[in-house]
Amino acid sequence: MPTLFSQLAVLGSSLALIFGLILLWRRSLTAYVTAFAWQSLVLSVLMVIVAYFGRDPELYVVAAAFFVMKVVVIPRLLTRMQRRFSAEREIEPYVNTATSLVVAGLLVLFGYAITRPLVAVSQLPTRAGMPLAMGLVLVSLFVIISRKKALTQVVGFLMLENGLTLLAVLGTYGIPLIVELGVFLDVLMGFLVMQIFIYQIHETFESIDVEQLNRLRH
Amino acid sequence: MIGYVVEVVQAALVLLLAPGLVGLVRAMKARLQNRRGAPVWQPYWELWKLFQKEVVISSNASWLFRAAPFVVFASTAAASFLVPVLAVPLPFDAVGDLLVVVYLLLLGTFFLSLAGLDPGSPFGGMGASREMTIAALAEPTLALAIFALALSAGSTNLGQIVARTMTDPASALSPGHLLAFIALFIVTLAETGRLPVDNPATHLELTMIHEAMVLEYSGRYLALIEWAAAVKLLIFFSLLGNLFVPVGVALALTPGTLALAVLSLLVKFVVLAGALALLETRIAKLRLFRVPELLSVSFVLALLAVTSSFLLK
Amino acid sequence: MFVMLLAPPLLAALLAAVVKPYRVAVGWTGALLSLVTLGAAVMVWRHVAAGEVPTAGPHEFLRADALSTLLVFCVSAVGALGAWLGPGMGGADVYDRAQVRRFRIFSSLLTFAMLVAVTSNNVGFMWIAIEAATIASALLIPLQVTKASVEASWKYILIGSIGIALAFAGTVLAYFDFVNLTGAREEALNWTVLMASAPHLHPPVIRLAFVFILIGYGTKAGLAPMHTWLPDAYAEAPAPLSAMMSGVLLAVALYAVIRWEAVVNAAVGRGFTDSLLMTLGVLSIAIAAFSLVVQRNYKRMLAYSSIEHTGLMCVGLALGPLGTFAALLHLLNHAVVKSMMFFLAGRVFDRYGTAEIGRVSGLLRTMPWTGGFFAAGVLAIIGLPPFGLFMSEFALFRAGFAAGRPWLMGLVLALLAVAFVSMIGHLNRMLYGAPPADTPVGEGGAWPLVPLGLCMAALVVLGVTLPAPLETLLEQIVHIAGR
After folding, report:
1. For the whole model, what pTM was predicted?
2. Between chains, do C158 and A194 touch, taking CB under 8 Å as contact?
3. Beta strands C62-63; C55-56: pairing state
4. Which residues contact C422 (CB under 8 A, 6 or more apart)?
């Protein structure tokens, strides 16, 4: 019978994945930012749980940094951007909602298939959540390629990072602290650069619809 | 022998309580909307009134129109024999498979749609086509959601699923169960014609789905159909309550446990009715082309539930 | 020694950041500092050729083996070129002071990040450095904000970040496998440690990890089908940045692939990585060759040629030790020629004001030296003797036939022929004919041609002979990575 620890791990991963699915269902950009903030919150709580049960004090630091960066700072910046561009809704994406959701389900199944060797190899009680983390990664990739607003693509990218962090936490209780902090810094920098670029896109094109970015061909 | 008696009592209880459940939801909604609203037993008066009234049938209607209310009522009542309401295991449980229940309910929906088309009224046709769209997505989700539970229980027999969950309470918290619960809840809203899928209190024909199909009915036929709809709501609530939180379901057929079962059933109904009333008050009806999106979400959740149960055993 | 290698670009960046508004002295200081780095790179080469493996820092954080040395040399050389030939050195510039300052800051940071990436022993830090390099280069692409450059930079940062994220996934998976095996933490991400324990790692996990890593770093290296950002980014970026990105950032990404390939080969044998690299390599060459036919923009032409050469390098890596030798020689040659070509393209662009092949004509008449070097460069890129690329491609084909893959080599040869014909056609259109009416004639600001001429000379030297220090270094690399 699975322990409380592994139950909580799987529960947390499922919640993270469900928040990711919101990106495919809802059309409102505010909903996307809220879903991302909640997903990051779930992940920080999960990190604290893993730190407690796995007796790994470094992970507390990581959880705190993760919380500050992804639950507080980045959603605030995203909301500010979204209000500035008065971009309220995602327009009709390349793949319609119902099909997107079915594709997402298939991607999660695919994620289960490819993480089978990982689950077989691992000894940790958190291993059952790894397929869900991989599913989140694949679903985020799908979001990035099938949505049309630059802001949605950024949120999709941030969720991809969340999925990878989740995979690392579940698989190895996190990577070494120094590397983890470097990764955070990089992601933050990357996000800031994306923010700068979205401002530039808005200045130059008067909209943040990536369908407008079609001048460069061949 | 006593099992059969309990079965009949169970079915009778379901039929008797159903209008009261609908009245309860309406009363709670009224309170939440700061109205006094009708008393909880108002639907009983409505059924009584309808049974007295004269039946008026369109001249274009065929035998189907007259037969449909009976088919709908009979199939829904038959399903009430098979759903675990009071106790498990019961004699009819051998037939009480997941698929049988799903198909019985679908039979009712199917005949109701045909009856909507039969008199040739445009609203009936519109309601029927909308109902079929919703049913096409909701039925597989229903089957998948309960199948997720069946996987961890090892059998598609509903009684066995309940018994299994009772002996292993921690499994009720597993992600498969939670995802299946959410999926089943959304399907309940769709199948019983509740907000945000369909507004049961609407009088605007163009927004109707279930009401549009029964627009032509009157008198005792309408009474049977309304009663069947209430029974359907009760069946879904029983599924939601007893499959996922089987607290209080009687395992032995003694008066004490049965009384406890009835009590816990009532508690679950009150909780679920309250949740439904709250939801209906807070959410607006979805535009029709958005309903398939909602149902796709529930389908994916059910799919994930099945995957979780399958791969995390 | 590592301080001498890594500190100068960091100092140059700090200096450029601090001095506001930009002054030419900053540019000159940065250029001189880049020569210090180049000197340090040569010193490292000397040590490594003598058989040592210099390390520095706790847990052997920085480590320069033969593979690192080759790339350190390439990065510092191209970095020096960028510092000397970039805007802000006192000549006439298309960019204003703020843009030049931004260029100086971020190009120095780019060089610094690339140097850290290739000398870091810790694969996690290698990842961090490559991501930092991506960010630094991304900020420079829209140096002049136009619709096209904004679009190019958005595609670059988005696709690049996705690629990097996938590479991170692969790193995590490999780390996961290692931790399950031994449980050690701090040094677990050291490449040396990974190599040592590679035979014990679980094959299915390592294979999955390599797939992610190849897709991830391959995106940065310009492998098809993840290459879509490359032509746009190189065409819209300022010429010195394109030179640095095409010459060495591609090479650094490939370096990451080679490092991981060595680990995976030690774990599961060559077959898996060989087939993956071969497939993606041939696919890249094919897509690049056919895209070259329809090119109308000479900067994009050079970009697609980069994709083609990356594909060739991957094919070489998949052909065993001989192929690895050829691939790394090709890496060096390509770094030299591509950076030179982009600087020359920059000069042509400044003169003609357009990057379209159709509107550039009479190059030999307006700028005889630039045109001449440009022509020689194109001939070099398509693999003609007496230039270095001919030697490396010849070595590659020899390795292919020795590995028993004649049909594959035939296919690659046919694709190279397609590229050959296309590029010669484009070149002819640019070189001859009458120049457009109001184009000034004469070199104008000819001194940048001196370092470019040196590159040309180096290319010829590499085409005629294989200098002994280079040969020893390459053999050492094959020993590390090509078994």
Report:
1. 0.83
2. yes
3. antiparallel
4. C289, C292, C293, C295
